[in-house]
Specification:
Blueprint: E1 7-14, E2 21-25, E3 30-33, H1 39-48, E4 58-60, H2 66-69, H3 72-78, E5 83-86, H4 87-92, E6 103-106, E7 112-114, E8 117-123, E9 132-138, E10 141-146, H5 154-161, E11 165-169, H6 174-179, H7 184-191, H8 199-209, E12 216-220, H9 229-242, E13 249-252, E14 262-265
Parallel strand pairs: 3-4, 4-5, 5-6, 10-11, 11-12, 12-13
Antiparallel strand pairs: 1-2, 1-14, 2-3, 7-8, 8-9, 9-10
The structure holds zinc ion (2 copies).
């Protein structure tokens, strides 16, 4: 990864039910969002980008499902990378966090800085203890990372509104999910208010909520058996086009290889957000929390 002192780079190292990990790298800070690949695979992916694992400043963990924490033991233990997560997630993921790890507990909704990056965790609806997405701010621009959410809540909508780049899940196609071979209970979980967003839900969300700053979207957590990558991209592109946003570039992410590296440059602060459209009512669905992602 070549160095430019005035750019921010975003690359999804992997995404899906077998492991999630996203790199955001500024001139002064490099962070990983989630550590769902093995330690070895994470090191390999970073090396492919010209980054030594020791150059990573921090790992942010969104929730405790294994596809988001599988590599934590190696990265926080052997490689001594600091881990940031909220208290509930720290408790739920305790088995993946070595005793000697440097653990920083954050509070949802309260931002902090790592180098020239500002990190803001926000709550999402998902079948985990206290799951969050993240807004990464850099010089007035925002990258919103939101995977694993069954309901586009008012807060999720707000966090997408000003973003320049969205890493948003387009998990499944409802027809493929319905007709797939998974147990009925698992299908219900994926499709529930605490499960995952369908292609259509992702497209509608981006079309309705993103503002004029949005230039690039990464579609994440694409199901291997209940989705087709090109179908996901087509649906989201069509939704953006209907909203007059056909200029937005829609990129895919993969389970077994890294995405394109997106580089964005310094720009003026975002324009003020437009009037808020009415949000969907939030439907609470109570049930036992899982330690595995319902999409697995
Ligand atoms: Zn999950
Ligand atoms: Zn997941």
């Amino acid at each position: 990864m070549t160095e430019n002192p005035d750019s921010l780079k975003i690359c999804v190292l992997a995404s899906g039910s077998r492991g999630n990990c996203t790199l955001v790298a500024s001139p002064s800070a490099r962070i990983l969002i989630d550590a769902g690949l093995s330690g070895r695979r994470t090191v390999e992916c970073l090396a492919g980008l010209g980054i030594a694992v020791g150059e990573i400043d921090a790992i942010m963990v969104g929730h405790e499902h294994s596809d988001h924490v599988r590599g934590l033991a190696a990265l926080a233990g052997r490689h001594r990378l600091p881990v940031y997560l909220n208290r509930e997630t720290a408790e739920a993921a305790a088995g993946h966090i070595p005793a000697r790890a440097e653990v920083k507990i954050f509070t949802n909704g309260q931002p902090w800085e790592i180098g020239d990056l500002e990190v803001l965790p926000f709550s999402v609806f998902h079948d985990a203890r206290d799951p969050v997405g993240f807004v990464i701010g850099w010089r007035g621009q925002e990258v919103t990372v939101a995977t694993d959410l069954g309901t586009p809540t008012r807060l999720v909508r707000q966090r997408l509104r000003g973003c320049r780049v969205a890493v948003l899940e387009a998990n499944h196609d409802p027809g493929l999910l319905l007709n797939g071979t998974r147990p009925w209970r698992l299908k219900q979980r994926v499709n529930s208010s605490r499960g995952h967003l369908s292609n259509r839900a992702a497209g509608d969300l981006l079309a309705a909520e993103t503002g004029p700053n949005l230039t690039d979207v990464f579609l994440a957590h694409i199901s291997l058996d209940c989705n087709r990558p090109e179908r996901a991209r087509r649906e989201v592109r069509e939704a953006l086009k209907r909203a007059g946003k056909e200029h937005v570039r829609v990129r895919l992410t993969y389970q077994d290889r890294i995405s394109e590296v997106l580089e964005i440059f310094d720009a003026p602060p975002p324009a003020p957000a437009e009037e808020t459209p009415p949000s969907l009512p939030v439907q609470l669905e109570l049930g036992p929390f899982l330690t595995k992602d319902p999409a697995i």
